[in-house]
Structure formats: C-alpha cells, structure tokens
Amino acid sequence: MLKTLLYICVNIFGVIAFVWKFVIRCKLNMKGTMRYLAGIAGQSGYGSKSTADQVTQDCSSLHPNLTAIVTGATSGIGAETARVLAKRGVRVVIPARNLRKAAQVKENIQKEHPKAEIIVLEIDLSSFASIKKFCSEFLSLDIPLNILINNAGKFSQKLEFSEDKFEMTFATNYLGHFLLTELLLEKLIETARQTGVQGRIVNVSSVIHTWVKKDNFSFNSMLQPKHYNATRAYAQSKLANIMHTKELAKQMKAIDANVTINAVHPGIVKTGIIRDHKGIITDSMFFIASKLLKTTSQGASTTCYVALSSKTEGVTGKYFVDCNESRCSMLANDDSEAHKLWKQTRALVYKRLRVQLRP
Ligand SMILES: NC(=O)c1ccc[n+]([C@@H]2O[C@H](COP(=O)([O-])OP(=O)(O)OC[C@H]3O[C@@H](n4cnc5c(N)ncnc54)[C@H](OP(=O)(O)O)[C@@H]3O)[C@@H](O)[C@H]2O)c1
C-alpha cells in the first residue's frame, strides 16, 4: 500500500516537473498562453481553436485539379489533413508503409466525399531505397504535383537504426523528407511553370525544436548518437525540418522557382506519435495538460492553411503556429547552420544513393 502511494506521488511529481519544464523551455508567456487558451485569432483571422475545415472554408479562389502528396496520412494530423484537402477537391496521394491503414483512410474519405480522388502508394520514409521507389512510381503516373506535405513523424523511445544505419527518428523525420523533397522538386517546379499555380511545400515541425542547443546539433552524432535521448533526437529532427525549410526557400528564390516552402507547428494533439511512450507518466501528463491539447482537426488547421489559403500565397521560408506566422528559435534562424546542414545531408544522400540531385 505504502509502496503504491509512494509510486503514485513520485509519478505525479514527475509529471508536474515535466509540464513545468515544458512551459519554461517553450517560453510560453502569460499573454501568449491566454491567447492560446482562449483561441484568440491572430492576423490571419484564425487562432488555436480554428479547425482545418474552417481555415479552408473560403476556397473559392482555389485552382481546380490540384494534386497533393501528404506523408503520414494513415493516422492523426496527416489523416485529417488528407481528408480536408480531398473535401476541397484536391487529388490526394497517400504514401504509406502500412497499405491496409492507407486503404482504410481512403475508404473513410470516399464515404464522406464519394468524388474524392485518392491514390495510395507504398513508402517507408526511413529507407532511402523505398523513397526512391515511391518517387519513380509517382513520377510514372505522369500527374501534376502542386503541394507536398512532409507530415509523417516518428518519436522513437529507444535507440533504433534505419535500414541505412541512421538513427530512426532523424532518418524518418528529416533525412527521409529531405530526399523525398529533392526527388520531387523538379516536378513541383515544372507543374508550377506549366499551370501558373504556385507550388507549395509544408514541413511539419514542432515547437520542441526550441529545446535544441547549438552544442547538441552535430550532424554525425545525430546520424549515429553515442548517448541516445529520445526527446533530444525528436527535437533535433524537428529543428532540422525548419532549417531545411529556410535553406530551400532561399534556393527556390535564387532560381526564381514559383514554389514556396514553410514550416508549421501543429500544436499538441494526442495522436499515435506517442504510441511508443505509453505508461502512467505519459497518460497522466496528457490528462493534466488536457486543457492545452488541440483536437486533431485543430492540429491539422495550420498545415491546411499554409497549403491552401490565398493569404499564404508568396509567403516562403516562414514558421507558422496556430495559422499565424511565428518566431522560431535563434538556431533555427541561423542561415549558415541551415546551409551547412543542407550540404552535409546532400553529400550523405549522394554518397549512399548515387542519385542525380540538383546542382
Ligand atoms: N501530435 C502532436 O502533439 C505533435 C506536436 C508537434 C508536431 N507533431 C508532428 O505532426 C506530425 C504528424 O504526427 P501525428 O501527431 O499525427 O502522429 P501519428 O498519428 O503517429 O502519425 C504519424 C504518421 O507518420 C507515419 N510514419 C511514421 N514513420 C513512417 C515511416 N517510416 N514511413 C512512412 N510513414 C511513417 C505513420 O504511419 P503508420 O500509420 O504506418 O505508423 C503515421 O501515418 C509529425 O511530424 C509530428 O512530429 C505532432
């Protein structure tokens, strides 16, 4: 009895300490917190409580026949993003490692919107070979590509390595999406050139990127960490997503390509991302923080807003939270670090795959 009581007390203390640490580290000020809790709209006219349906309601100016690829659409925020895009008439390609789950998502969307066009193709974002195969299958369909949403995410609790021998969280969240984007970029640029409709890339990141310090951001140790810390690895991968966004936005501007790229933090949503972290601590944390959580539809709103809204036309290299442009960490804004990361990643991909990448 005493032992159980002690166990519960230790856990409650742990949860309070974690939530407190989260609040402090994310630098949530009072005004920002109140704005978040009340769902007060920002400049865009939307806020934390806006849903993906609401932010895409005015799609009268939306170009017909858009095609989007949404990674990680077999569950959580990605499935909702795919549903809302399809509802707005966008043809949605779902790359998935679990084809059964993807078929179920497709069926659910088509039950609600019988005319929705959904294409399911296989991909494992932690494998370079699988990404390459997906891209050649997609490109052989010879359909346009207007929107790429890099949403899939992994938060590996223990140290695991991908098929290519890289740490699994970094491999899935960052390296996989980097390669996918590189292999599809020409298609996005070409579609935008032919149709006159701006191409858009959305990288789904997280506010947790602010936790990473410069000392903890070394490429080789992210690939093969000696001392693994799950939260740190996840935060590093999400920081890398923003740096990728910033660097690629500069490159697209330099070649005058009509393609924008932005990063988003979806908000905190109880989804499958914490499936490896089940237990009393995680459950109690979500219970205590339940007032701060978003619904899945609120979680998908920022992605859908950045991907479809006419208000984000021409906006590139930015970071969005609750459907409004927001500030990311100093490190995420460091152009030279972003360029260094891009060069290192590109060299690694080339060495491993020997694929022809952009100059
Ligand atoms: N939920 C939050 O509170 C939160 C907060 C900040 C940022 N985010 C970000 O939001 C994004 C969506 O996450 P979520 O919360 O919706 O999580 P989720 O429900 O776990 O969805 C993750 C998706 O990624 C897919 N995925 C994982 N590894 C993959 C791989 N190797 N190859 C292909 N697909 C893979 C999963 O596919 P399977 O179905 O096959 O597993 C699933 O569809 C992630 O980038 C996450 O980092 C989430």
TrEMBL record:
SUPFAM superfamilies: NAD(P)-binding Rossmann-fold domains. Pfam families: adh_short. Keywords: Membrane, Oxidoreductase, Transmembrane, Transmembrane helix. GO terms for molecular function: oxidoreductase activity. InterPro entries: NAD(P)-bd_dom_sf (IPR036291), SDR_fam (IPR002347). Belongs to the short-chain dehydrogenases/reductases (SDR) family. PANTHER family: NAD(P)-BINDING ROSSMANN-FOLD SUPERFAMILY PROTEIN, RETINOL DEHYDROGENASE. This is NAD(P)-binding Rossmann-fold superfamily protein. It comes from Artemisia annua (Sweet wormwood).
